[in-house]
Amino acid sequence: MASSEPVNKKQKIETEETLLEEIDTCQNEIDALNEQASEEILKIEQKYNKLRKPFYEKRALIIEKVDKFWLTTFINHPRISSILQDQEEDCLHYMTKLHVEDFDDVKTGYRISFHFKENPYFENDVLTKEFHLAAENQSDNFSQTSTATQIKWKEGKDLLKELQSKPQSNKKRDVDHKSFFEWFLDTHDPPNDDIAETLKDDIFPNPLQYFLVPDIGVYNDEDESGAEDEIEEGSEQEIDDEEELEEEAEDGE
Hints:
The chain has helices at 5-63, 69-76, 78-81, 86-91, 159-164, 180-185, 194-203, 208-211, 221-252, and strands at 95-102, 109-116, 126-135, 142-148. It has 253 residues and is an alpha+beta fold.
């Protein structure tokens, strides 16, 4: 009697192949919906970018009236502060506006603009860094490039040259970018530019949350030193009070 095992095995393989084909069909339908969803999400994002724009502009005008707003915000942010050198902090006193905007076609990239009032460091009013996305040969893969404004340093004020000639401070520094302006001018690896992503997705949407971080930043230096003085004075007063009590106790005896 012939064994039915080979037949059953063949049927099992055919059944499995059929099931895999059905799964693949379902997956193709899911992928098509995901692609459709991505297109619709981009349209919604473009719509709300336009709706947010007047509020960003209004916020920017108010921020310009707050002294050291962007400097304080950067110092209070752990990622941005990790690349800030002391000399750059002085330069950023003159920064009046940070603006991030997607290109008209949000799929093609965005730009980050740093606005400055007249300052002793460079001639530029605006420093802009752009990130461009482009499809590779009509495929699903994208290549990313970036460009940055050339900084027109004033004579003797090139901070990059100055930083290169001086030893690093004791602050914790970023391994890849040793300073803020080094990051700004570095365009060699845009897909891994986490500083740009931080500015775009974390700081720009809500900078106030970092400006208001307590006990950190340029506004609190004097407060902290004052608090330390008060603690020292309080400790000295407690010692004096204890000595007086001991003397009174001895007199009573």
